[in-house]
């Protein structure tokens, strides 16, 4: 499955999208930018000898056979930083082995993650020397790392008739199984019991003032309680067409069912069908989508939109992701249409294999024909994930947002301004599972301070145990 985690936003795509009702009782979480590039260190390991020796430049410069020996050794022992100097020495000799030069040069390009040059060099080498099985095996590995899965599969298949060591044949089998798994349908399921003492996100203030007149709120306008089940089902498939080009299919279903307050039952389903370009260090996706929502056990809205995603690996420790959406929402029982623009960016810093930090920022524009419902929302996200030795995995997120409405409120003659705080902490142990279902304990705190507190200010705590399975 895809991994998830987040500098302030760099806005790359001017796009617009449309949203749900401005009533905070039925607002949903934004689909922020989440990095999706795989970890290059998670490739299949190779067996190699531990060998070292010392020699000076003078000894090398006068001995082309020794240079060729060390070029091979630099490739096999993954000492690629030595290759440019060795090739510079080796090129002085007219009788140099040109195949060896290309072989070593390709390994060097791969070591600096210049996959385009490395793959081109080895592909050209195999056109004139198709019997070089070692070159073909490395080419197939690099194509796999560069997510050119169909091309990698083709190269591995050509090695089936070659006479290779058993451990190489075993590695080929592992790669082919990994290629198959990467193109299978992936499922992610989450579900939990939820108890919410303010399901409608309402202010607990019992009175409101319109001018100097005091009114008592109805019972329905005060915080409502509910118990039920929250669930998510994500299904996705990425099919490699050719080179780095892919078809992207995904369906996201999420919902809440309250058995003692069904008025707030909420189901949302979004379906993507689009294009994805991905290599070892970059990913771009163009994803048209259709979204349908049911609220209070009735069809609520339909949304058509486009989502753009861009991921870039800046280094082995840094990764940046940005996304944007535009869409239009039509409501079942209203002629009102809503347009929304979302811009989201996330920067991740991987401190170690067990620790990552992220910083993210989001901008949300919502517009309808009623000015009082139009708003701009600006948010900043901070987060971290950490595995505590071999005990527990943890993840925390803090989000602060400002939301400004463009028109006066319907009952109060001023423009609404909200400050939002959201905090989330999750802890789990991967080894504690039953049939692959992992329990995770999550605490959430949400607070809104509004300049119209009698309507929109509230805060609440939630502690939930949810269960998650990927397959």
Automatic annotation (TrEMBL):
This is DUF560 domain-containing protein. It is a multi-pass membrane protein. It is found in: Cell outer membrane. It comes from Ursidibacter maritimus. Keywords: Cell outer membrane, Membrane, Signal, Transmembrane, Transmembrane beta strand. Residues 186-470 form the Surface lipoprotein assembly modifier C-terminal domain. Belongs to the Slam family. It holds the Pfam family SlipAM. Signal peptide: none annotated. The keyword RNA-binding does not apply. Residues 54-156 form the Surface lipoprotein assembly modifier N-terminal TPR repeats region domain. One of its GO terms (cellular component) is cell outer membrane.
């Amino acid at each position: 499955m895809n991994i998830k985690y987040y500098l302030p936003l760099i806005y790359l795509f001017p796009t617009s999208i449309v949203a749900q009702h401005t009533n905070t009782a039925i607002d949903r979480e934004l689909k922020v930018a989440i990095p999706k590039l795989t970890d290059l260190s998670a490739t299949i390991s190779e067996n190699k000898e531990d060998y070292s020796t010392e020699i000076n430049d003078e000894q090398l410069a006068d001995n082309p056979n020794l240079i060729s020996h060390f070029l091979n050794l630099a490739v096999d022992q993954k000492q690629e930083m030595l290759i440019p100097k060795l090739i510079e020495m080796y090129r002085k000799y007219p009788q140099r082995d040109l195949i060896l030069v290309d072989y070593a040069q390709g390994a060097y390009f791969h070591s600096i993650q210049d996959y385009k040059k490395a793959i081109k060099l080895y592909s050209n080498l195999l056109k004139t020397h198709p019997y070089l099985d070692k070159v073909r095996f490395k080419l197939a590995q690099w194509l796999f790392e560069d997510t050119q899965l169909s091309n990698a599969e083709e190269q591995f298949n050509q090695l089936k008739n070659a006479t290779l060591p058993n451990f190489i044949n075993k590695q080929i089998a592992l790669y082919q199984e990994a290629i198959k798994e990467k193109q299978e349908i992936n499922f992610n399921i989450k579900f939990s019991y939820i108890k919410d003492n303010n399901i409608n996100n309402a202010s607990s203030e019992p009175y409101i003032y319109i001018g100097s007149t005091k009114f008592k709120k109805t019972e329905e306008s005060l915080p409502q309680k509910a118990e039920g089940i929250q669930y998510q089902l994500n299904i996705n498939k990425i099919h490699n067409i050719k080179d780095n080009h892919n078809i992207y299919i995904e369906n996201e279903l999420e919902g809440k069912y309250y058995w003692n307050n069904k008025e707030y039952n909420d189901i949302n389903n979004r379906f993507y069908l689009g294009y994805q370009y991905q290599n070892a260090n970059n990913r771009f996706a163009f994803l048209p989508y259709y979204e349908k929502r049911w609220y209070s056990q009735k069809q609520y809205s339909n949304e058509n939109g486009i989502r753009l995603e861009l991921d870039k690996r800046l280094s082995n420790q840094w990764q940046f992701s940005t996304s944007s959406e535009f869409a239009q929402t039509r409501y079942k029982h209203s002629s009102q249409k809503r347009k929304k623009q979302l811009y989201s960016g996330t920067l991740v810093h991987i401190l170690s294999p067990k620790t990552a930090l992220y910083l993210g920022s989001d901008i949300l524009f919502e517009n309808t024909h009623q000015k009082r419902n139009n708003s701009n929302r600006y948010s900043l996200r901070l987060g971290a994930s950490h595995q505590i030795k071999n005990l527990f995995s943890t993840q925390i997120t803090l989000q602060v947002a400002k939301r400004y409405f463009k028109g006066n409120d319907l009952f109060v003659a001023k423009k609404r301004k909200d400050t939002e705080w959201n905090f989330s902490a999750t802890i789990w142990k991967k080894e504690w599972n039953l049939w692959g279902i992992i329990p995770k304990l999550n605490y959430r705190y949400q607070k809104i301070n509004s300049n119209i507190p009698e309507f929109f200010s509230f805060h609440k705590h939630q502690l939930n145990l949810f269960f998650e399975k990927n397959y």
